[in-house]
Amino acid sequence: MLFPIVIGLTLLFSAYLFSSYWRLHHIPGPFLASFSKLWLLKWVIRAELHIGLLEACEKYGHIARIGPNEVVTNDPEIIRRINAVRSPYKRSTWYNSTCFDHSRNHVFCERDEGRHVELRNQMIAGYSGKENPSLELSIDKRLTHFISFIRQKYLSCSVEASSLEKREFQSASYCYKPVDFARIAQYFALDVISDIAFGQPFGFLETDSDVHDYIKTQKALLPLFEWFAMFPSLWRLTRIGWVSRLLMPKTTDKSGLGCLMGVAERIVNHRYAATSKCAPKSDMLGSFIRHGLPQEQAKVETVLQVMAGSDTTVTSLRMFVLFMNTSPPVLHRLLAELDAAEKAGKLSRPMARGSEIQAHIPYLCACVKESLRMWPPVLGLGFKDVPEGGDTINDIFLPAGTSVGCDAWGLHRSKAVYGDDADFYRPGRWIDTKDEKKLAEMNRSADLVFGYGKNGCLGKPVAFMELNKTVTELFRRFDISLVKPWEPIRSVQRNGLFVQSDMWVRISQREGVDEF
After folding, report:
1. Across residues 258-272, what is the average pLDDT?
2. Taking a C-beta distance cutoff of 8 angstroms, is the pair 336, 367 a contact?
3. 190: Cα separation from own chain's centroid
4. Which domains can be identified in the chain, with CATH numbers?
5. Binding residues for heme, per the UniProt record (predicted)?
6. Gyration radius (Cα) of the chain, Å
7. Residues contacting 156, CB < 8 A, separation 6+
8. 367 marked among binding-site residues
9. Residue 80: which H helix or E strand, with range?
10. φ/ψ of residue 498, rounded to 5
11. Residue range 201-219, pLDDT digits in tens
12. Cis peptide before 350 (omega within 30 of 0)
């Protein structure tokens, strides 16, 4: 009796494996990926999925199979094609994993095309800065606080420039104040984005601490959300009442993401109530209100702002500082450009304007762009589903429903686009290249760091302004050197974002530069 059951189950399982394999059998990829998600699971467990995707595309081609129904590409033309405004490709279940409130989707996880476009239209003016004249001022205020914070708590004295007697140098606590730049940079980024989103900073720098354990909770949640992204059936379990109550954040939580949601709820309720008495403020939330974003929707969108805006920007800031430390010729050229602009009076004090940075220190802007290229802050696969009827790309047929993801790490290291030194940090490629056609191709590819078309990042203008201004003011004033060059930073990739820590640096006042 048992034998026929075993035979039947074996045949069913064999049929399932064969059908899984056959669907995309014509697309090369790792063996395990042809019938299971074990290959993806291996790299997720290692927290190095971006490396696995890079190797897959290098070995199997611009379109590689990474799962029974999943392929990945590092081809910029394909990525633009599937994300174009009129593309028939739809967002896959992968986006569900970024949902933190089952009662309402935010703009990033919204899979309904019409609703997604509507949300973008209601928020794009606020993100662009056109209706938010206080945007740059908000960044300047937080940046001023950050510089003061460094000077008061973590500025090491410059021994070479000091006139103190040698015996006074013996106190390491006085002359040597190492600080984890990964930590304080995240405090700064969170204060900036909370000021922009809510009109007031959360106070990470003020307290020099992880307010409400937000960062700690985020680090714990990211691996969980990555599992949800790879295995959608796990995410569906979170919609069960008791599972949701156990795992998902709530506005009544005293710490973490739920606490942030509670703060957003209180501030948004207050701001929407105030609009009955006076016109909305000229800030980002005010712009959302003016363009008809519903009150309940504003609550999840402001939380998304803080989550996405802080994690991505701070990764780029950390890596910029790291690249400066590991590229002496680049740092020398950058400082020479900064000093020349300063001497010529082209940079305002105490804070340079964003327009001045763009106009007068182009090499610094090139360094920012190269840092984003070499270390994209967002590496999520961002699967899009092939439309009904299937699609043929580069003579490869993709059946309807196939999920196509992006290998961002490999995309921005393409030797076909950037040349043989694509793996080398060389900002000069952005301003020294004489071939206009080649430069245009590189710029089009680099722009994909922030997504493309209907899936482009709304926060791109804010991110560039914050990054350009922050690195300008830090390197204008300070020397920042690594304390442990043999282990400069700890970095793991979780659900497309980097969890980074232990970036120990020594910060001192630049010689010959007055305090301002």
Report:
1. 92
2. no
3. 13
4. 1-98+379-411 (no CATH), 99-376+412-509 (1.10.630.10)
5. 457
6. 25
7. 175, 176, 177, 178, 506, 507, 508
8. no
9. helix 76-83
10. -100, 130
11. 999 999 999 999 999 988 8
12. yes
